[in-house]
Amino acid sequence: MTDAPAAPSSTPSADIPAIELRGLRKAFGDNEVLKGIDLSVAPKKVICIIGASGSGKSTLLRCVNRLEEPSGGQVLIDGIDITHPDCDLDLVRQRIGMVFQQFNLFPHLSALDNVTLAQRKVLRRSDEQADEVARAVLDRVGLAEKADAYPSQLSGGQQQRVAIARALAMNPEMMLFDEATSALDPELVGDVLDVMRTLASEGMTMLVVTHEMGFARRVADHVVFMDQGVICEQGPPDQVLGTPQTPRLQQFLEKVLEH
Amino acid sequence: MTDIPVSDDGRLGEGDLPELYRSGRAKQARAKRNRILSYAAGIGVFVAVALLGDWGKIQEAYFDPESAKVLFPEIITTATKNTLIYTFGAFVGGVAIGLLMAVMKMSSLRPYRWFAITYIEIFRGLPALLTIFIVGFGTPTALGVQFPTIFGVPTAGIISLALVAGAYLAETIRAGIQGVPKGQVEAARSLGMSPSLTTRVVVIPQAFRLVIPPLTNEMVLLLKDTALLAALGTTATTVELTKFGRDAFSINLNNTPFIVAGVMYLMLTIPLTYLVGRLEKRNMASR
Ligand SMILES: Nc1ncnc2c1ncn2[C@@H]1O[C@H](COP(=O)(O)OP(=O)(O)OP(=O)(O)O)[C@@H](O)[C@H]1O
Ligand SMILES: [Mg+2]
Question: What superfamily does domain B77-286 belong to in CATH?
Answer without folding.
Answer: MetI-like (1.10.3720.10)
